[in-house]
Design goal:
This protein has helices at about 15-20, 35-45, 65-70, 75-80, 135-140, 165-170, 205-210, 220, 245-250, 250-260, 260-270, 285-290, 340-350, 370-375, 410-420, 455-465, 485-490, 495-505, and strands spanning about 25-30, 55-60, 85-90, 95, 100-105, 125-130, 155-160, 190-195, 200, 230-235, 305-310, 320-325, 325-335, 360-365, 375-380, 425, 430-435, 440-445, 445-450, 450-455, 470, 480. The protein is of the alpha/beta class and about 525 residues long. Strand 3 and strand 4 (about 95) form a beta hairpin. About 40% of the residues are buried.
Length: about 525
Amino acid sequence: MGKKIPILPQEGYQNDFLSTNADIAIGGGAAGAGKTWALLYEASRYCRNPKIRDFGGIIFRRTYPQITQEGGLWDESKKLYMKMGAYPRENKMNWTFSTGSKITFRHMQHDKDMFSYQGAQIPFIAFDELTHFSKEAFFYLLTRNRSMTGVKPYMRATCNPDPDSWVAEFIEWWIGDDGYPIKERAGVIRYLVVDSGAYIWGNSKDEVIEKVPHLFEDDVLHGINPYNLIKSVTFIPGDIYGNKELLKSNPEYLANLMSQDEETQQRLLRGNWKIRADRLSLFDPFKLKDLATNDIVRKQTDKGFIIIDHARFGKDFCLIGNFLGWYLRRIDILPISNTKDITKVVHLQRQIYRGISMSQVLIDQDGIGVEDELNCRRFIPGGTPHKTFPTAEGGKSAKKEQQLFKNRKTQCAYHTADMVNESLCGVDFTNIWFHADGAEPRKVEKLFINGRHQTIHDLLRDDLRTLKRENVDLDQRKQMTSKEAQKSILGRSPDFGDMMIMRGEFDFIKFPKTLSIR
């Protein structure tokens, strides 16, 4: 029999990823770095230790096909775990090692799936392509990261760059202004607690405690060591050039990456976290920046509209936008979707901007009570598309094209994108009002969301730039990024973008020619 060859990681990214002792380690930043192999190897670390019994871990992918497809996670695990003597159960998607420890593969396509693990104790939790998961799912699973095996529980994740994901914000300390990982910070450990949704970072645990002492008071700790409440975090970048085995066995893969357009090369080959490949984007990112300076569009019409984006089940914000044609001239933000408050703001807007009838007021399908109170129009996102499609110049195409779109919202989104991309849409970001409970409305330019202050312009831009064209369905109808996927990317509901998309509905509706704003 030949000499048994040890299974070892490659120098560079794989070795660095497997060497860190951080509670949470995120690795990657470019395609072909050997991320999946390193993740699988890390998962087996304690499973092969005979002194540790019944250790368990779960590796998540967003969808089931991503686990089972040719060359996917399951296929890759076979190449590694078979050599370790582990026993596969493909029907259960898990591997059992000689120690009795198990590694299981699971998908989490919808955020609600995370609640399936309520009450679970999982010593090792990993995410393959973390940017495909929501921030809420990641931090909820962190509460399941517990262990009674004697091994300190920990989490690992891999990903490719996605500048629109919550992960980009989470690891921003390790990324330079140019979008590339900062070499001197690669693998450096920082410390984290989350306070009311905000990240509190420090270079030491003591620094974190000094920043938020109220989290570590005696009546909160109940005798627990405060250090145990603080997580250590690191980011370890890697790229294909450090994966010598891949370059040796499949050099064509490098050629595949080099044949991509410049934006894709920047992200997948060079690991840039601030470059966006927008060929599939509905909205031109440069035109989204211009929304604040397109004042001239307010002079192109005298027709006004009010759009109400009702917060679903009372969550998120309720937005009430007032348009003059395609110029969004005022936004009112309500923290709670209260029928009385919404109708009050609508009547206020109609007093300020005369000539807007109730047939020019539109609310989404969740605002049934408000619709009844105001007797206004109702927008059904999943409804049948309109028969004709308006052009950006204001005309209507003669062909009945309703079957070209999956639903009404998709049709309106494509039309709204045409208006924005043709510079026929503008926004007054200086006329935004926040209605706090019981207080007089106040002007705002920013909102505190996802643990940081963000401008309204950025929120609207992010909502719209996450909308991508998707492959047509079986009926050859145009599709786009789902709202669920947008929430996963943004870490919140895309309310500002939804309000803008709903504006497109009025371009399909006929109004009397005599209608005007006095």
